[in-house]
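Support reply, case 0932

Customer input (verbatim):
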Amino acid sequence: MNKITGIILTILLLISCKNSEKIETENSSEPEFESVELEFKRLGNKHTVDLEYLFLNENDEQIEFSSIQKMPEFPGGLDSLTKFVMKNYKFHQGNVEYLEGKVKTTFCVDTFGKVVDIEIIERLRKDYDTACYKVIAKLPDWKPAELNNGKKVKTKFLLPFKFVLEE
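Our regenerated output:
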């Protein structure tokens, strides 16, 4: 790494979607929608990627956790997901100023196990945002979550990236 001793890519866990800050864009002409309170649950431990998740029905309405029989599974588990993110995160190392901060992302694993609906919900800078988006876009298929009756359901994940400059 040329101008920096290193960037540590750490995955953070947000306490709750309802406590997250609302990000407003300059000159936004998008209409305001009624906020729907979603409650994410934690997945992971201190040695793996920390994700928050919630389950959605076919109308994208939240499903109670107690009705879930099988959790969604990344191939190889959370340790493999952590390794995948670290291996596939690519940041252009040209003559740019490095930043500290967070990029917060969400994505869904649909009923077929495909990663869909990737969004950057809190931005840092375009190059950082793009690098985070590309990592998520490369994720392989998961095993989707299943209800107690065997029906597969969509899962929405919250995955924040934290960037720290080493001294």
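We compared this against your earlier run and they match. Two observations from our side: Helices lie at 77-88, 126-137. Residues 77-88 form the longest helix (12 residues). Please reopen the case if you see a mismatch on your end.
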